[in-house]
Amino acid sequence: MKALYNTIAAATVAAAVLASPMAMAHATLKSSDPAAGSIVDAAPKAIALTFNEKIEPAFSNITVADGAGKELATGKATVDEADPAILRLAVAGLSAGTYTVSWAVAGHDGHRRKGDFKFTVK
C-alpha cells in the first residue's frame, strides 16, 4: 500500500513539474516603441509592441487614448509578417501631450492578456 501511495505522489509531483511551463506560456509584453513612460521629441507614426511569443491576430488589438481618456480613431492593429511576435498600430497626427496605449493579445495557448502604459510627446 505504501508503494502505491509513493507511486501516486511521485506521479502527481512529476505532472505538476511538467505542466508548470505550459501554465507560464502566456504572451508577455517585452518592449514597446515608444517605450513605456518615455518622453519623445516627435510624435510616432506607429506604436509597436513586441511580445515574448507569436500572437494571434484575430484576438489582438491596440488602442490609444489622449490625456483626457478619449480614444483616438485609428485603424486595426496588425501583426508583423516578418516577426509574428510584434503587433503594430499606425497612428497619425499626435500632438504634444500624454497618451495611454492599451493592448490585449492572445498567444498560441489562447489565453488573453492585456495591459497599458503611457508615453508623452513633447
UniProtKB/TrEMBL annotation:
<comment type="similarity">
    <text>Belongs to the CopC family.</text>
</comment>
<feature type="signal peptide">
    <location>
        <begin position="1"/>
        <end position="25"/>
    </location>
</feature>
<dbReference type="InterPro" id="IPR032694">
    <property type="entry name" value="CopC/D"/>
</dbReference>
<protein>
    <submittedName>
        <fullName>Copper homeostasis periplasmic binding protein CopC</fullName>
    </submittedName>
</protein>
<dbReference type="GO" id="GO:0046688">
    <property type="term" value="P:response to copper ion"/>
</dbReference>
<dbReference type="InterPro" id="IPR047685">
    <property type="entry name" value="CopC-like"/>
</dbReference>
<dbReference type="InterPro" id="IPR014756">
    <property type="entry name" value="Ig_E-set"/>
</dbReference>
<keyword id="KW-0479">Metal-binding</keyword>
<dbReference type="InterPro" id="IPR007348">
    <property type="entry name" value="CopC_dom"/>
</dbReference>
<dbReference type="GO" id="GO:0005507">
    <property type="term" value="F:copper ion binding"/>
</dbReference>
<dbReference type="GO" id="GO:0005886">
    <property type="term" value="C:plasma membrane"/>
</dbReference>
<feature type="domain" description="CopC">
    <location>
        <begin position="26"/>
        <end position="121"/>
    </location>
</feature>
<keyword id="KW-0732">Signal</keyword>
<keyword id="KW-0574">Periplasm</keyword>
<dbReference type="GO" id="GO:0042597">
    <property type="term" value="C:periplasmic space"/>
</dbReference>
<dbReference type="Pfam" id="PF04234">
    <property type="entry name" value="CopC"/>
</dbReference>
<dbReference type="InterPro" id="IPR014755">
    <property type="entry name" value="Cu-Rt/internalin_Ig-like"/>
</dbReference>
<keyword id="KW-0186">Copper</keyword>
<dbReference type="GO" id="GO:0006825">
    <property type="term" value="P:copper ion transport"/>
</dbReference>
